[in-house]
Design brief:
The chain has 609 residues and is α/β, with parallel strands linked by helices. It is 60% helix and 9% strand. It has 21 helices and 11 strands. The strands form 2 sheets. Strands 1, 2, 3, 4, 5, 6, 7, 8 and 9 form a 9-stranded mixed sheet that branches. It is rod-shaped, with a radius of gyration of 59 Å.
Amino acid sequence: MRTNLKLNTEQIELKFKEERPIQVVRFISQNNKFEINPEAKDFISNLQGNIGFVVVCGRYRTGKSYLLNKLLEAQGDGFKVDAATDSCTQGIWMYTKPLQTQNIQIYFLDTEGSESVERSQTHDSKIFALAILMSSIFIFNSQGCIDEQCISQLQLTTTLAKSIQVQEAHQNDQVGNEGLLGYFTPKFIWILRDFVLELEDKNKRKISPKEYLENALHDDSAYVRTNENNKKIRKSLLQFFKDRDCFTMIRPISDEDQLRQLNKLPIQQLRKEFQQQLIQLRETIIKSCQPKQLNGVNLNGRMFCEMIENYINVLNRGGVPNISTAWEHIVENECQFGFDQAKLLYEQQLKQNFGNDEPKSFEEIFQCLKKIRDDSFEKFHSIAGIREKNNFFEVYRQRLQDLMNEKENLALKLNDDMNSTKNEELIQNLSKEVKENINTGSYTADDINIFLRDFNTFLENYDRQACGTQKANALIHFLQQFHPTMVKQLVQSIKSKYDKSNNVEYERGQFQKKEQQYMEDIKLLEDTVKSREDQLKRLETEKAKLETEKNKISKDLTDLKNENSKLMNKNKDLDDLHNQLKQKDEEIKQLKTVLDQLNAKKKKKGCCG
């Protein structure tokens, strides 16, 4: 069950700056239902730290409200006090000023008096049950000594086991519920007003008020044994209230005429003994009051309101308040409230860090989102972390996790969109110089490296200055869209620049023709040289053969000379052969001359080309 808390702490503090009583639980007679007062709910829900509640019950017209006003030292009007015979207090009221100690704030609550002619016993039992469930200390206020008539005023204690359940009905029987209930009831203090007796036991030994109470509860006299109803009351008090105490207080003043104006009298005019008893009672309350707990957990104001509201809703349906069920509602409400507060903190910090038009780098956004997430989880855990293994904790934690994932995806997309826009603007600015140089024809074929240098500088600057996970995609998109166009413009610019030169095309054609002619001449010369070189190789071969033959002939000639007589007949042949050799030498010399001329011509042509 979710408690809607639309609170403004400053307004509430201002509203309750002046101490005064406010009604916490009121009874609507038109529909016969109880309800928690929204004004009190706003006030209590904002209470922080350890808080305890002292609730006073008793018969109407027994001075409960007056006692509370004196305990509180109320500076304002205090709780309503009237000398009339009807009940002054309706429902349950609380004073906005606590008794403040270093460790706890103690708030006092006044209840509607029991046994009023205006209310039924059923109504009284509901108020009584709520008082027990709300209090850290339960004070029962009565007049005179503890006798059987006084004991009978606590008749409602016998209905506690029926009026309050600790667990679900199917989980335990009535006997089991009675045994468990004593662990959840508050400290019980019985205040005996206008007490005049001497505190003595049967043996005339002086005893303390607490011993007096214990003796009365354990009284086993014959009369008590025959009074079954009072026996049940005594048993209930002993069973349900393990921590018990008692205080006796004399009448505040002796003068009967001043009783009607008692509430208007300053405390200094009251009897000194009463003043002392009042101080002792206040000190005991401060010393013994513990923070209001449920299941061993200190309740804050918000949890306390959720508990009361759950009990009231059950009573209005005709059911019995269940401590276990109330705890489940408190836990769920705290988890819901923790979720709401963590969500609020998360969205506030998200707006604060991502609410402007300035994109962040991937590292910045990661660190920022991590801190926001950690702070929000810490807020959730600080509120909903009571008994972390409850059934609702993980459910609401997962809801918070899902919310964060959704919000972070949106934040990342928004940041990427802003980065993409910034990166596109960055590309336009960084590439502007390159584009302008292309459009103005500043790049030529001879200094194309300058273009490459400028373009690489553009890429390096973009990589250094661009941000976001999509910075590479932005550059790729630009290159796919504009790079081919830039290259085409660059080529056209270079071509156009050359076309603007005088007779460039004609001169280039003439140059190409001359070049082609030179190439053809060189080819022809190379072919001629090759042919001549082949012919020279053949002549060299023939020359070598002739030399060999010459050597052989020379050898033969030598042999013939030696055989002069034998060669005389061959002189003519030798002369012919010698003439042929000279003729061959002549031909070789002519071929060498031609080859030298051809080589000289080739070298000349090469220099001209």
